[in-house]
Amino acid sequence: MKKISLLFIAFAFTLFSNAQLALSKHDGTPINDGDVLTFTQLDEANAKLKFYIENTSSTNSIEAYLEVTDITNANGDNVDICINPTCIVAINEGDLLPETGPMNIAPNSVNSQFDYFWNKESGIDTSQNVSYTFTVYTISNGIPTGESIAFTYTYDSTTNTKNADLSNMGINVLNTYTKDFIHLKLQYPISVKTYDITGKTVKTSRLAAGNQQVNINNLNSGVYLLEFTNSNNKKATIKIVKQ
């Protein structure tokens, strides 16, 4: 039994040490296995996920596919996706990209500077999120090696900066998905409270009219609520995502 265990550990260590696959956004942020990447808008500037599929080995090339493993609340026919050399405008669960065959990525290289995914679909049920799960995996002689990275692209349809209550209060929220600042245009002075998902107040601010911002740089990544209160004690809330 001890011999078998030692062999298994050695085999597992070999697999781990030979890991060659990595994903990252164009800004350098790693995309790790199981990550959920949330987007709150549908326009190209704010909804296009540009990413690198990278071979981290300094010696060996790899072959890899991107598989569409799940689509939720969408039919897949209102997207743009490019996995060099394939660019298509509709996807189905089970699709493998590139359509022409596996990517062949040289050592210390990426598949392309132009790989991306852009969802344009607001959802079959517009009150629910739209999600696409992708798995990038390597193959050898046409057989999966066991090395893979899965991630989910989510369009959060419930986060809407065109909230009628906000507009009526003279509040324009310019972004809801950020690493540091939520940018606002205010017609009137306003009080702002930031709550975490447990309902705990994690930040309070009093802002004058004009171009303002709420600094959430020191908060942990996750979902938060901003509650705005005006001089008449009228309130409105909006959900934000801290990267």
Quick summary:
The protein has 243 residues and is mainly β. It has three helices and 21 strands. The N and C termini lie far apart (46 Å).
Written account of the structure:
There is one protein chain. 10% of the residues lie in helices and 49% in strands. By secondary structure, the chain is mostly beta strands. The termini are far apart. The chain contains three helices and 21 strands. Strands 1, 2, 4, 6, 7, 10 and 11 form a seven-stranded antiparallel sheet that branches. Strands 3, 5, 8, 9, 12 and 13 form a six-stranded mixed sheet that branches. It has a five-stranded mixed sheet with strand order 15-21-20-17-18, with no helix packed on it. The chain has helices at residues 2-17, 44-47, 164-168, and strands at 21-25, 30-31, 35-39, 48-55, 62-72, 79-83, 86-88, 96-97, 103-105, 109-110, 116-119, 130-140, 143-155, 171-173, 177-178, 181-186, 190-195, 201-207, 210-215, 222-229, 235-242. The protein folds into two domains: 18-155, Immunoglobulin-like, CATH 2.60.40; 164-242, Sandwich (Immunoglobulin-like).
Helix fraction bin: 10-25%
- Rg over CA atoms, rounded to whole Å, is 22 Å
Q: Per CATH, which architecture of the largest domain?
A: Sandwich
CATH class of the largest domain: Mainly Beta
Number of strands: 21
The largest pleated sheet is described as:
7 strands, antiparallel
| Mean of all residue-level pLDDT scores | 87
* Helix segment tally: 3
Could you spell the SSE succession in H and E letters? HEEEHEEEEEEEEEEHEEEEEEEE
Low-confidence stretches: 1-17
What is the CATH fold-level name of the largest domain?
A: Immunoglobulin-like
